[in-house]
Amino acid sequence: MRGWINYYGRFYPSRLVRSLRQIDEYLIRWARQKYKRLRTSLRRTLRWLRGVKRHSPTLFAHWSQTRTALPAR
Description:
- The chain is mostly helical and 73 residues long.
- It has helices at residues 2-11, 13-34, 42-55, 61-65.
């Protein structure tokens, strides 16, 4: 994943940001299906994901190598 980010970041940075946001959207969808308390509120899910990102910034490669914002809804 890091190699892909490095390559795309050099040649297609605007496309890279869109792709990484898509990964975060998949994580949001996964969390809403896994945790009952997140199913009803997108705002709560975004807050949860920001907290995970703040506490474990190296959990996913795209969190540690880039500064993409979480998807806005």
